[in-house]
């Protein structure tokens, strides 16, 4: 038979709190009415109470305790109760639902008021909710159940391909000295993002990350594709970066959880890397940088100024084309735009490549929440609308970095005037005005 001590909590902010006098954990038998289905349905409060009353009379066994902590409380305990797991033939999904159902019943809340979000071991490691209890855990092991008010249960962080594309491009600018290096990730850059996201641990050292990079970059499939595409063989493109993440997820989980690794699907290991490392440490850092640029989009005077200068913005982007094809949609690569930003005396003086890459991301995405980022087929190509927002972001960055005191729209107007003059488009507008007359 099987018993488990459960801790029901909000977001994990540290290890489970110590208990001065932990109860002696023994086992009791669970009624078949709760274990009849492979994935048990949400147990009703009456069902749980009736079963527990029957089980309490079955013998002197002490059941495991559940400590309840509200969402965002830092694991401060507000209530505790007992939950019988019987022989442990249930899956972890049942544990989450049963605990949340009991919590609602004890508080007199509506059935289904609370929903589980994840089930973790005592170290805070999120577990696959389809794992059978007695296959993975021993008597007395502790589990942590995250819960919320819903509505969606077991919500995995919605990390999109757009977010991964974003972090790849931003990291490819780290330490870069030329715009041509954007979109190509080197070994130090890959190691850097793994370090920033805290994927590197004593059990999973930097040398292992370097080994994964080398193996992916020199695999037969990678070399064949890069020869065909005539791209560098010593760097990662986005495709290689995705493959590197999968390899990292597998080897890291095996190093951190050697006894559990064989039971876990690769998709779960990848979700663990994304949720616990990238989304917890790397993505929020970029989101904070984007938030600093957002006020520029809410300035009505700035919006009016950009609207009046729209024709000049379009002519400026036209002047930046490497090949001018009148019939095609105008899109200019950021790597080529770097050449013009250098000519205009901005790149390298007012901002560096890393800052430009963040501003470029600001121009391509509608918001700052990485979970909503859109995957772009041309992530560093800019059309008229995106180029206009790029210029707005550059002005916002410069206005803040230089600690200018004049209103933003005034500074924006001066910067745009300088760009238009150096791009040589003001004369073209004057000529167009003469032709209209």
Concise description?
With 437 residues, this protein is α/β, with parallel strands linked by helices.
Structural class comes to alpha/beta
Number of helices: 17
**Overall helicity:** 40-55%
Secondary-structure element series: EHHEEHEHEHHHHHHHHEHHEHHH
What oligomerization state is this entry in?
single chain
Q: What is the spatial order of strands in the main beta sheet?
A: 3-2-1-5-4
Task: Quote the distance from N terminus to C terminus.
Answer: 92 Å
Strand residues, percent: 5-15%
Number of E strands: 7
Write a structural description.
The protein has helices spanning 32-35, 45-56, 92-106, 133-136, 161-172, 187-196, 206-217, 220-229, 238-256, 266-291, 300-308, 310-319, 334-343, 353-364, 384-401, 408-423, 426-436, and strands at 5-9, 65-68, 79-82, 115-121, 142-148, 332-333, 381-382. It has 437 residues and is α/β, with parallel strands linked by helices. The strands form two sheets. Strands 3-2-1-5-4 form a five-stranded mixed beta sheet, with helices on one face. A two-stranded antiparallel ribbon has the order 6-7. The model is unreliable at 9-41 and 55-63 (pLDDT under 50).
